[in-house]
């Protein structure tokens, strides 16, 4: 089925609120999913893959800062989705890069890492050059690199297959962000190492997807749409029950 950008964004926001996100976090997370979907990057599918994990996460769990200095910050995402753990981390990296010219932020133990791209698009719109990369635990072993140039709303995305997996290779559930005031300071997206390019999405391709989505609507799988509606319905049920409980308590106090 096809829906508008605003419909998708609004339903996702309600679904995240139903899961237990704070209002601001729910709006941010909805923006990220809608942004990816409108750029042809399968944001709803990525959300659906991690939804069971999101339902099990504790809303009170927050990322922990392990180490930082003027240029570097290392955070523990506590096994949470980036939709819960990444906003403050990206802002921390942005502030360091603005002050020092370059920053590196490493977030350990997080999932739904694809959904970070919408957050990075915001920072690029504020004049920051960004490269994000992470390793996907799959066969063949792949590494993904996402690069935003300052002022550009869409990234360049490359996915590589690692030819020779090192013997000391360990499962990697983290992500590394490099931010710079000057694009020349960023790592290159080129395949200078022993890697095979599996996929390449240039800025122009993703921008064309965005323009088509806004014109003709965003395609969303019916089953996933129904699941989001079910989660969004939690808000209505819980708010109704809370309202009834409050009314009852008030009557009891007056007895």
UniProtKB/TrEMBL annotation:
Protein's name according to its UniProt entry: Ldh family oxidoreductase
Source superkingdom: Bacteria
SUPFAM superfamilies the record matches: L-sulfolactate dehydrogenase-like (SSF89733)
Organism of origin: Halomonas tibetensis
């Amino acid at each position: 089925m096809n829906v508008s950008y605003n419909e998708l964004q609004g339903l996702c926001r309600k679904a995240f609120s139903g899961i237990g996100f704070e209002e601001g976090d729910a709006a941010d997370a909805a923006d990220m999913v809608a942004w990816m979907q409108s750029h042809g990057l399968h944001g709803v599918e990525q959300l659906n893959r991690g939804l069971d994990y999101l339902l099990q996460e504790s809303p009170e769990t927050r990322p922990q800062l392990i180490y930082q200095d003027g240029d570097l910050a290392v955070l523990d995402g506590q096994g949470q989705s980036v939709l819960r753990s990444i906003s403050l981390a990206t802002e921390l990296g942005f502030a360091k890069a603005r002050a020092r010219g370059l920053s590196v932020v490493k977030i350990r133990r997080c999932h739904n890492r694809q959904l970070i791209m919408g957050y990075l698009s915001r920072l690029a719109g504020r004049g920051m050059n960004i490269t994000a990369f992470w390793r996907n635990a799959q066969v063949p072993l792949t590494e993904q690199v996402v690069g935003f140039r300052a002022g550009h709303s869409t990234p360049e995305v490359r996915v590589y297959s690692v030819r020779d997996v090192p013997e000391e290779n360990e499962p990697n559930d983290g992500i590394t962000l490099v931010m710079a005031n000057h694009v020349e300071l960023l790592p290159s997206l080129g395949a200078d190492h022993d890697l095979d390019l599996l996929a390449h999405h240039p800025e122009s391709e993703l921008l064309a997807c965005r323009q088509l989505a806004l014109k003709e609507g965003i395609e969303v799988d019916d089953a996933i749409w129904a699941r989001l509606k079910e989660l969004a319905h939690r808000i209505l049920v819980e708010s109704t029950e809370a309202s009834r409980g409050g009314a009852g308590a008030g009557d009891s106090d007056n007895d």
